[in-house]
Design a protein that fits this description.
Number of strands: 7
Protein name: PRC-barrel domain-containing protein
Organism: Nonomuraea wenchangensis
Helix content: 10-25%
Number of helices: 3
InterPro entries: Bac_photo_RC_H_C, PRC-brl_dom, PRC_barrel-like_sf
Number of domains: 1
CATH architecture: Alpha-Beta Complex
CATH superfamily: Photosynthetic Reaction Center, subunit H, domain 2
Largest sheet: 7 strands, mixed
Oligomer: single chain
Strand content: 25-35%
């Protein structure tokens, strides 16, 4: 399970595509309901960093305050728009898994609890 300290360190990171392109900074961290581990982050990019795009942490590596994800910038820019208003729905999670080629895993039923942590730093 991710601790608040671990999540805070993720929130301080910049995200880089596997093609070396800077994508933006981490906006939010989404946790897996069952494991409590960080599974997705949103990347703040676009005009004034107003757009947030979901990217999976699977296959990523971290060096200092930089996370290099397993996807290039074009793949991230083409990601489906998913609102960052709380819990990822099963449909949204399936869309994201398909987009990133992570298989067609059907997520487990939700408990109703949020799987996202917003921390005031």
């Amino acid at each position: 399970m991710a601790t608040q300290a671990e999540i805070r360190t993720l929130l301080e990171c910049h995200v880089v595509g596997c093609d070396g392109e800077q994508l933006g900074r981490v906006g939010q961290v989404y946790l897996n309901d069952r494991t409590g581990r960080a599974e997705w982050v949103t990347v703040c990019g676009g005009f004034l960093g107003m757009r947030q795009t979901f990217v999976p942490l699977a296959g990523s590596s971290r060096t200092g305050d930089e996370i290099t994800i397993a996807f290039d910038s074009a793949k991230v820019r083409a990601a489906p728009h998913v609102a960052v208003d709380g819990l990822l729905t099963a449909r949204e999670e399936i869309l994201l898994h398909r987009h990133y080629g992570m298989g067609h895993t059907v997520p487990a039923p939700r408990t109703g609890d949020h799987d996202r942590l917003d921390l005031d730093i």
